[in-house]
């Protein structure tokens, strides 16, 4: 635990990528295999689902530190992170604290919190911690398959505490023991038992370790290193190529000593896929014959697992044996690292003759690999999420493939020859069950780009032209649910640019350019694949609210809310409603108000952030806890990838990937755009897909 908390501190204290890689590699070499596996689990961005609500932890920390709720909330606003606030406060508590003495780090405690910013007067109506935190950390997180009942959890923790007693404070417990014996069993305990154990552990740990523990139990640990840096660290520690490290880390894996030892094994010469069973390899390199008899290797559904065409039943949980079989199935269906395109910033003519390049539409869906090996079929997202159960119609089509393959492509909501808005796919993903009505309202296809494995043979070093020809042969006459991505043919770059300008009307994001002789690489490698996207949508908007950021930005106002002009009583995002609340513009014949429509956190450089922070502090008109209302004078260009209707927002619309494009110091606030500009963009996006979008409303019932 101490070794991992020390690593976390080292990573947090440097901006050097080489220093981060070296620190992680040193930890992986020195830690026991099981601890290194869990450390790698967290370094890779994987998380344990939230075990204790943030509000409970805040309440216990207030009791330990002897501070009132309003003061705790002010400390949180100053620090910007719940775990850090708790760690600072419990590290230096009063003599009447329920905790035993703890190891401390220099410069800690309430005085350290207060030093983060100038003293702030007690607010007249203080916000609660619930108002300040988004407590749903568990969504989409990955959790190891360790469960315990209330009694077994209590026994596991209590027995260990009795055997170790006070010696734990002086004797470091392994990271694995912390997770398996202490943290995960908390899920089976009631709040009073959770409190008792957390307070006891806080008494054993230093400030840095308390911070880490709170992050673990809230499912909010973010280490701040990219996947690429983790792969480099593994490669450095194991003495293997970074591409091989990325390959071994792809897909789902359990943080175990066995996995880590396998990860660190020396590289071995190979000609076949690293994921295929040895007895199932093709007889010759590049062999193009289908496998003969799959026999007993045909996939049998797990207990509680849906078969092809069935949606998962959330009321049925997998047994322990079934979970083990699922883990083995996931390992057998492990994907490859994805090859990513780089943005094309300059002129495409600089790439050479058009004949050297394959042009395809850039679809707006979910990047995924479709895998069929030894009768089993799986779908994995680029984020290493198992999507197999979410797309039964694609699963059914893949079952008809005669060959074992790994296909790279895109999952799209698609109907009547064109893609549907991404919002249709989003609503389908959010459903717990996939009945016939849902499948009809949001039909999905898999657009196949590339063939990267055939008959257990790794094809990634073969040229794209050969891989595509093999892919086309396998998909011919297969199913309308799995289709080859069409090439976009043109006689010249100028003609191709004209086709690119039709992207919005076609419901795509632009063009992909892939060199015909390119291999299938790992990660983002410039020169072989390019994405030639159309410019994003944009509107000019007025800054109306700001609040502090988190982590290193906790002392700066960097989270911004923007508004556009609307006419009270008018059409707000397609919904007739009451007049929006906001700043009134009396300069127009028709009275207008500013209505918030988007938040943005990125796009400004450090100098602009500092200047805007100073301006906000000098032009604050009201405060609502950490949120400041400001004079509506600053105009910004907000770029975004899409817009959809949203009755949950006052504006009636929600943006996709909003960010600040530039600070429009040349514009006055009354020159900012109106909501009608956003609605015009929305209508252009909907276009011919309007009927399909209306049909998809059934998903919200």
The portion of residues forming beta strands comes to 15-25%
Q: Roughly how much helix do the residues carry, as a percent range?
A: 25-40%
- Please state the overall shape, judged from the principal axes of the Cα atoms: globular
pLDDT averaged over residues = 77
Number of strands: 25
Structural class: alpha+beta
Radius of gyration: 28 Å
Largest sheet: 8 strands, antiparallel
Q: Low-confidence segments, ≥5 residues, pLDDT <50? A: 100-170, 276-324, 572-582, 691-701
Note the gap between the termini.
Answer: 47 Å
Quick summary:
The chain has 701 residues and is α+β, with helices and mostly antiparallel strands.
Question: Could you characterize what this model shows?
Answer:
The chain is an alpha+beta fold and 701 residues long. The strands form six sheets. Strands 14, 15, 18, 19, 20, 21, 22 and 25 form an eight-stranded antiparallel sheet that branches. Strands 4, 5, 6, 7, 8, 9 and 10 form a seven-stranded mixed sheet that branches. It contains 25 helices and 25 strands.
